[in-house]
Amino acid sequence: MSPAQCRRLLLIVAHYRPLSRTVANSILQRKKELSTTHLIFFTSNSTQIFLEEKIRSRYGVTGDELPDFLILTAGQQIWMPDSFFQNEKQAYKHMIDKPNVMIRVHKDGTILYSVRISLVLSCPMHLQFYPMDVQQCFIDLASYAYTTKDIEYIWKPHEPVQLKAGLSSSLPSFQLNNVSTTYCTSTTNTGSYSCLRTVLQLRRQFSYYLLQLYIPSCMLVIVSWVSFWIDRTAVPARVTLGVTTLLTMTTQSSGMNAKLPPVAYIKAIDVWIGACLTFIFGALLEFAWVTYIANRSSQGRSTPRGPPLFKDPLLIRFLFRIFDARTRSSSEDDGVA
């Protein structure tokens, strides 16, 4: 930086009031415009953002000998907006090996503030269609103390959100379908606050659940149906097969649900697992019913139809002789008469 540039910068800093909010121009009067850009890197657990804010200041200078911008190393030299992320749960700035902050002061009065932040954000999910669900996660940026009368956040006209190359397919469990921007200005008891919102549309990867849940559960149902071709008299084999498949399906269901928070509504995976358990339990009930009917039929065929008294041949021969003797004596009595 030349001595003339240093004198110009010192002149600007000398007349600058870092504790007061400067006015952009006469049309905006008391309002300051912030043009914001996000550069996003994120995983399923955290999000890393390069936040860029352009602040329009009235302390612009002109001159051919000045560079396009000057870089400041200390943020205390200029006024900074009190931006914060509304749905942030945990955040920290990167400080290795120096604070990852960049401040550029352009000669037209525009100030570019860029900072690297890692965030853990809250993203409420609706799991009715799990694991074939599509979720929407938000990144909300707003001012904590200044209302819309003082600060208004505006998205950069072109490419306000920039994504790292390959980010859409780098997540282990989700596919990033779309990224859009909107506004989330809210009104509270203390005033109306300008807010910017980044909408991330995430589709859950289905291939993992296809290999770990759907194909194994279909195989368990088919194995339980194999008992239909086993002889009904092979009771140990059929009972072991039915009970084993039922317990395996129950264990698989518990393992999948252990990865999810408990919810009060039915999920798509619950319907699938319930149908598989019904088919497996139905095969076990079918075997029990067939065994019961077969036992009743065999007992019916082995039971004699008449009293056991008339099934003894000696007794039948004895009774026949008595009946024949009585018949003869009756005939002789009729002849004498």
Automatic annotation (TrEMBL):
Keywords: Cell membrane, Ion channel, Ion transport, Membrane, Signal, Transmembrane, Transmembrane helix, Transport
Gene3D superfamilies recorded: Neurotransmitter-gated ion-channel ligand-binding domain, Neurotransmitter-gated ion-channel transmembrane domain
Pfam families hit by this protein: Neur_chan_LBD, Neur_chan_memb
Matching CDD domains: LGIC_TM_GluCl
Protein's UniProt keywords contain Transferase: no
Gene Ontology MF: a single term: extracellular ligand-gated monoatomic ion channel activity
A GO CC annotation given for this chain: plasma membrane
Record domain Neurotransmitter-gated ion-channel transmembrane: where: 213-304
Protein name per the record: Uncharacterized protein
Organism field: Heligmosomoides polygyrus
Lineage: Eukaryota, Metazoa, Ecdysozoa, Nematoda, Chromadorea
